[in-house]
Amino acid sequence: MSVLDTLHGALDLPAFLPDGTRGVVRTVDGEDLARCGVRGVMVNALHLGETPGIEAVRASGGIHRFMAWDHPVVSDSGGFQAYSLQLAPGNLAKVTADGFAYRLRPGARRRLLSAERCVRQQLRLGSDVVFCLDECTHPDAAADLQRQSVERTLRWSRIGRATLDEAAEHGGERPLVFAVVQGGTDLDLRRRCADGLLEIGFDGFGFGGWPVDDGGRLVEMVAAVADLLPADVPKHALGIGRPENVVAAFRAGYTLFDCTLPTRNARRGAVYVLTGEPIAIGSSGSTASASGATGARSRTAATAPPAPASGGRT
């Protein structure tokens, strides 16, 4: 598939989506993005639910009016953020049968992110592509925890798909819906998850879990998951943004990418160059190159957990 048809136009593939986690790509506006050739943006439903709030975005006319952006918007579920909160000190989140109970900071009001609520929030935002809730795990998690994650992800994805279908029956335009393939480092569990999601039926699929190792290199499971899915369905390499990893994931079959890394590096005075050695730019003397850039956690962690050097989701 070379084009993803959305409610706000066709998105040519492959496409890299800058992360506008709370409805804005930091330091640039919609006109800046368009002039740069950006044709799609990634936002995060959990973070938008906290600031400025889903209803505030909806009252402004939806996520596109809120961002002054007429092109496709993809919204992530917030599942990775809930996972990062589980790792943070202070008992900020726990997984339940229905989703996640969490608070973004100590002393804050506890909230529930359920499979149904997750999709309804994204529908209220007016996203062009919504992601069903999934449960992320650390690659070193025990086998029983990985199995539970897959079963929860399948159950929550089934609920999410049903929620979207029910909303479509009551009128309104239907966004695309993606689900996330979990399973850690166990290929059989990944296959179980992929087969279950294919049986439910989705418009596209994302790679779930840790896409890179401690050194920032793409793990072999990224390509293995792509092989478990039909060649003609859109595949989103969630949280993959290091240039050489984007290229490797594209060659493996992925056509959608998002990460905080490029804009984060830019704010720190660094740019990517296609060839050559790193060069100093700006007053800070920061450097970056396609071969030397370091990774970052996308699916921006709600708080900073212990993590490999790069990868993840916005």
Structure, explained:
It is a single chain. The chain contains 11 helices and 13 strands. Helix 10 (243-252) links the parallel strand 12 (235-238) and strand 13 (256-259). The protein has an 8-stranded parallel beta sheet. Residues 283-301 and 303-311 have low confidence and may be disordered. The protein has a single domain (3-260), classed as Alpha-Beta Barrel (TIM Barrel), CATH 3.20.20.105. With 314 residues, the protein is α/β, with parallel strands linked by helices. It starts with a strand and ends in a 47-residue tail after the last helix. The chain is globular and about 50 Å long.
Topology, element by element:
Blueprint: E1 3-6, E2 9-12, E3 15-18, H1 30-35, E4 41-44, H2 45-50, H3 54-59, H4 63-67, E5 73-76, H5 79-87, E6 93-95, E7 99-102, E8 111-114, H6 115-125, E9 129-131, H7 143-169, E10 176-181, H8 187-200, E11 204-207, H9 220-228, E12 235-238, H10 243-252, E13 256-259, H11 261-267
Parallel strand pairs: 3-13, 4-5, 5-9, 9-10, 10-11, 11-12, 12-13
Antiparallel strand pairs: 1-2, 6-7, 7-8
Helix pairs in contact: 6-7, 7-8, 8-9
Helix content, binned percent: 25-40%
Query: Sheet bearing the most strands, described?
Result: 8 strands, parallel
Question: What is the helix/strand order?
Answer: EEEHEHHHEHEEEHEHEHEHEHEH
Radius of gyration: 18 Å
- What's the CATH class, please? Alpha Beta
Assess the beta-strand content as a share of residues: 15-25%
CATH architecture: Alpha-Beta Barrel
- Annotation, overall tally of beta strands: 13
CATH level-4 homologous superfamily: Queuine tRNA-ribosyltransferase-like
Count up the helices: 11
List the domain count as a whole number. Answer: 1
State the strand order across the main sheet: 3-13-12-11-10-9-5-4
Q: End-to-end distance, in Å?
A: 24 Å
The residue ranges in which pLDDT falls below 50 over 5 or more consecutive positions are 283-301, 303-311
Q: Report the principal-axis shape.
A: globular
Overall SS class? alpha/beta
Q: What is the CATH fold-level name?
A: TIM Barrel
Summed over residues and divided by their number, the pLDDT gives a mean of 88
